[in-house]
Write a structure and sequence with these properties.
heterodimer; A: alpha+beta; Arc Repressor Mutant, subunit A; three-stranded antiparallel beta sheet; B: mainly alpha; 0% strand
């Protein structure tokens, strides 16, 4: 079962294969906050819905390597299933 | 000046598991440094620090209170405290007046709660964490114990003096002078200096120190139990014996101290067990945070 935040994160990640946590916050247009995004991403990684790697390319700002997140095959399937169930459960007048 | 986020990152390190640090706090720190370095105005840099401090706090709460075993540990602490407070009040119903007017027992609840907070929170720790305690669950129960200490202090300062006096007057239908049991902590402190006779001052001192020890008890017991539970051979049995011994001592210490004893002896009698628990709990905790699972 996906929470609404997890579904949104998966949706954003599927749209563009790899993203930083901060990019996801910006792309969500206010739906995600910095305080919840890292915890949710960590939980999704533990569930196997997404995977992450440290960005090896040198940072232009010389800071710490940032983490890039990508959906796994299982994550894509779960999102697809979740979307079809959500569509099925949506009342007819809202479709 | 240190790099932004360094202090908060170091603060989270003893609390979080290594995998949480890698998945949550490392990402938080890297994004903070990235945004900070790309900000062109000082006002924006300050704003970024504020936003990321709030994000750190929210992330830590999310990590702590959603970790495995934490809701169970906190629920046991709260449940243990409520159950103990009720158990403390039940014997009062043996009194004929209270049996006729059960609403009077409500006035005893704040005092019962002040005494029950340390016992309840300790019992909660004992029966919830066990050997499966994680770093997050240990931190959460210590935070709850700290809140219990603050609540005990608030009850003893502002609530129980008023309700105790109301109970006595409702029970007897007379206006009564307040005794030591109906004084707040600050009033007791003043009594230790102002009372006309040395014996009265000493009795006030004993009462005050006993209450201060009761305030420190939830934190001292919890810190100690968090270490004992994971290490002792029979953790629950040894923890239960320790809690029982501590409470028997708390009740018995009044008879050890006489009104004409000097203040240092009184302090030693009241504080020695609590300080021993605190010192042992704090030093052992420092060893345990380096455990693989702790």
């Amino acid at each position: 079962m996906l929470s609404r935040t997890e579904a949104l994160l998966l949706d954003l990640l599927v749209a563009k294969s790899e993203r930083y946590g901060l990019e996801l916050v910006a792309a969500s247009k206010g739906k995600l906050k910095r305080g919840t995004v890292y915890v949710t991403l960590g939980r999704m990684e533990a569930k196997g819905l997404i995977t992450s790697r440290l960005d090896e390319s040198p940072q232009p700002t010389g800071g710490l390597p940032r983490r890039l997140y990508a959906p796994t095959a299982a994550g894509r399937q779960v999102l697809k299933a979740w979307e079809s169930v959500a569509h099925y459960l949506k009342p007819a007048f809202a479709k | 000046m240190s790099q932004p986020g360094s202090f908060l990152y170091r603060l989270a390190k003893p609390v979080c598991e290594d995998v949480t640090m890698a998945r949550v706090l490392d990402s938080w720190l890297a994004d903070l440094r990235f945004e900070y370095a790309t900000a062109d105005r000082w006002a924006k840099r300050i704003w970024i620090r504020v936003v990321y401090t709030a994000a750190w706090f929210e992330s830590l709460c999310g990590v702590l209170f959603r970790s495995e075993g934490v809701p169970r540990a906190v629920a046991f602490q709260v449940g243990g405290t409520i159950a103990t407070a009720i158990l403390f009040v039940i014997p009062a119903f043996g009194d004929a007046v209270i049996a006729r007017r059960p609403s009077l027992a409500l006035l005893l609840l704040p005092s019962a709660l002040a005494a029950a907070l340390s016992l309840g929170s300790a019992l909660g720790v004992l029966y919830s964490i066990g050997r499966r305690g994680t770093r997050a669950s240990r931190t959460a129960v210590i935070v709850v114990a700290l809140l219990c200490s603050v609540t005990t202090a608030s009850l003893l300062q502002w609530v129980s003096p008023v309700t105790n006096q109301a109970f006595r007057e409702s029970y007897s239908h007379w206006r009564l002078l307040r005794g030591l049991g109906e004084m707040s902590l600050t009033e007791l402190g003043a009594e230790t200096l102002r009372a006309p006779f040395e014996q009265q001052r000493n009795v006030a001192h004993r009462e005050l120190q006993g209450r201060l020890a009761l305030i420190a008890a939830p934190l001292a017991l919890t810190l100690f139990l968090v270490t004992v539970v994971g290490r002792a051979r029979f953790p629950r049995a040894s923890g239960a014996v320790l809690i029982l011994a501590y409470y028997v001592y708390l009740g018995y210490q009044r008879s050890i101290i006489r009104p004409d004893d000097n203040v240092f002896w009184m302090l030693a009698v009241v504080w020695t067990p609590t300080l021993l628990l605190l010192v042992f709990g704090l030093t052992t905790r420092r060893w345990s945070v380096n455990d693989k699972h702790g």
